[in-house]
Write a structure and sequence with these properties.
- About 35% of the residues lie in helices and about 20% in strands.
- By secondary structure, the protein is α+β, with helices and mostly antiparallel strands.
- The strands form seven sheets. Strands 6-5-4-1-7-8 form a six-stranded mixed β-sheet.
- It is globular and about 75 Å long.
- The structure holds glycine and manganese (II) ion (2 copies).
């Protein structure tokens, strides 16, 4: 559990960085509606990170230079007639107490109350995100401030994204956050281990999916962190295969990419194994190349190493493996430079993991590599995919039929520690 004191500390840390600026964060707008049916609400991760508040139609303002109120919230007021339809609300009074705001207003008062927190700010911090409607609200306020600038001689002349300040913070996980992630991963490990026992020829992919997601909810997870991929046979070559509707066969590999979200912290784990318990010789060869690529890539996860080294290492092992099989030919440097391996390995080897599955934060700093630091969590997920229609790059060897229909990915969640790394998802065998 993340305690209120931690949210408070995050806001203090952020406010120290914005100085005389004001930062605005918007909640996710509302649940997704499909023809009057509400689908799951999912809070905006930045908003959640600084407030812990899990309701829609809310705004958080950080104004460290304001005389009285440094942390202000706008929330939906308590209104039983509405709550009876859409669920409980915290309301204005309780939000102040529960979330430690200096002042809380009903969201309907945003236009009236917001300007006082912007008028003396030297800079406005807001990320122009996907929420076009709220972007317009912020722009409208900014224009009004600009109009009044000559009279006051104060107001934010610059607009800066909150990402550059907040996302480096989010990238380094606190002990409490790591606890949440360990829990998400532990539940997901349990689900993967059960799925492997459960899967057998004749069952359908969705039956395995059902077992996995049952375990997620049984253990208090919110549900899948992303649509579960349960891909047997040649379906394993489709990266985001989510139909999960095929019957599994004795000779199939089964690729399961599934992880749960626990208190909004995510796991992201992939395993590939033979449905009938035995690899064919070709499956085994491909599997072992991917496994070795992953082993060597994970070994690169340590503080001080460039992030890109994880991917570069995996790519090299995969290429050497494919060359040994005669599926790639020529000069290794050239294969890398011209990405001739891409028909078989078309994605990156991982991503940051946290409150978002593809978590925030940069992977490169302009000309400079991004250097790994303790507290970051990355996925390491190399794969090889030889689909029924995979076409080699021109000039590269044709694909013998026996390799087709084999897709393997192995994905673990790895914490950068002060001495190296810890594979958080090691509980699922490879
Ligand atoms: N399951 C999403 C990913 O591996 O990135
Ligand atoms: Mn992933
Ligand atoms: Mn995944």
């Amino acid at each position: 559990m993340i305690l209120q004191i931690e949210y408070h500390q995050r806001r203090e840390q952020l406010m120290a960085k914005i100085g005389k600026g004001t930062a605005i964060f918007h909640s996710a707008p509302t649940s997704v509606m499909h023809n009057t049916v509400e689908y799951n609400f999912r809070q905006d991760s930045d908003f959640y990170y600084i407030t812990g508040f899990n309701e829609p139609k809310a705004v958080a303002v950080l104004a460290p230079h304001h005389e009285e109120h440094h942390f202000v919230m706008f929330v939906q007021p308590k209104e039983w007639e509405k709550e009876v339809w859409s669920g409980y609300r915290t309301g204005v009074e309780a939000a102040k107490e529960k979330y430690g705001a200096d002042e809380v207003y009903p969201i309907a008062e945003l236009d009236e109350k917001l300007p006082q927190y912007l008028e003396k700010a030297e800079r406005l911090y807001y990320h122009m995100g996907r929420d076009r409607h709220f972007n317009d609200v912020v722009i409208k306020h900014w224009q009004q401030l600009m109009a009044g600038y000559p009279k006051r001689g104060t107001g934010p002349m610059a607009l800066e994204s909150t990402n550059t300040i907040l996302h480096p913070m989010r990238q380094l996980k606190s002990p409490a956050e790591l606890e949440m992630m360990r829990q998400a991963i532990a539940i997901s490990v349990k689900a993967h281990n059960h799925a492997r026992e459960f899967a057998q020829p004749g069952l359908y992919e969705y039956q395995v999916q059902a077992e996995i997601e049952h375990i997620f909810r049984q253990h208090g997870a919110l549900g899948p962190a992303y649509p579960s991929i349960v891909a047997s046979g040649a379906n394993s070559c489709i990266l985001h295969y989510v139909e999960n509707n095929q019957q599994m066969q004795e000779q199939d590999l089964l690729l399961i990419d599934a992880g749960c979200s626990y208190g909004y912290y995510n796991a992201d784990i992939t395993r590939t194994f033979p449905v009938g318990g035995h690899f064919t010789p070709e499956q085994k060869i491909i599997y072992e190349i991917v496994l070795e690529a992953q082993r060597q890539a994970i070994a690169q996860v340590k503080p001080g190493n460039p992030y890109s080294q994880i991917h570069d290492t995996a790519v090299l092992v995969l290429i050497e493996g494919l060359m040994a099989l005669g599926l790639l030919a020529g000069d290794v440097e050239e294969i890398i430079k011209e990405e001739k391996y891409k028909p078989y390995y078309m994605h990156r080897t991982g991503h940051w993991l946290g409150l978002d599955v593809h978590d925030c934060g940069v992977y490169q700093q302009g000309e400079n590599p991004l250097i790994l630091q303790p507290g970051q969590v990355v996925t390491v997920e190399p794969g090889l995919y030889i689909g029924s229609e995979t076409k080699p790059v021109e000039g590269q060897p044709e694909i013998p039929e026996r390799w087709r229909g084999i897709g393997v990915r192995i994905e673990d969640d790895v914490l950068v520690t002060s001495s190296g790394h810890e594979v958080l998802s090691a509980g699922v065998p490879k």
